[in-house]
């Protein structure tokens, strides 16, 4: 379980699915648009969405305020190490290395999809 904050006008992570985990997103603050298997859900404080393993999804925040959600992943195989590795590749002054980002995702059980272009950050 972890808190997931998305700054205003940001798209993260790329569309993907999880091989071996289910995910629940519970909105705490702001609005978190989450697309699940092609259907867009506008999650507001107090709303939640179950994302079963194998379902393609992405989160974004195209609104003017930060969105905060609580994410529960079970079993808890995706943890701090994944987020630290991704942050190291995304929070750079140059363009992110998309090949490295994809490798990190795959190594941690997130499978990027080609349903949308690979977009990271703002």
Describe, in plain words, how this protein is organized in 3D.
Strands 1-9-4-7 form a four-stranded antiparallel sheet, with no helix packed on it. Strands 2-8-5-6 form a four-stranded antiparallel sheet, with no helix packed on it. The chain has a two-stranded antiparallel sheet with strand order 3-10. Helices cover 17% and strands 41% of the residues. The chain is α+β, with helices and mostly antiparallel strands and 122 residues long. The chain has one domain (2-112): Jelly Rolls, CATH 2.60.120. The protein has two helices and ten strands.
Helices and strands, in order, run as: EEEEEEEEEHHE
End-to-end Cα distance = 25 Å
CATH topology: Jelly Rolls
User: Which blocks of ≥5 consecutive residues have pLDDT under 50?
Assistant: 115-122
Largest sheet: 4 strands, antiparallel
- Strand arrangement across the biggest beta sheet: 1-9-4-7
Strand content: 35-45%
Class by SSE composition: alpha+beta
CATH arch. level architecture: Sandwich
Portion in helices: 10-25%
Overall radius of gyration = 13 Å
Number of domains: 1
Number of strands: 10
Quote the average pLDDT.
86
What's the CATH class label?
A: Mainly Beta
Task: Sum up the overall morphology in one term.
Answer: globular
The protein's oligomeric status is single chain
So how many helices?
A: 2
CATH superfamily: Jelly Rolls
Could you name the key traits of this structure?
disordered C terminus; single chain; globular; 122 residues; alpha+beta; 41% strand; Jelly Rolls; four-stranded antiparallel β-sheet
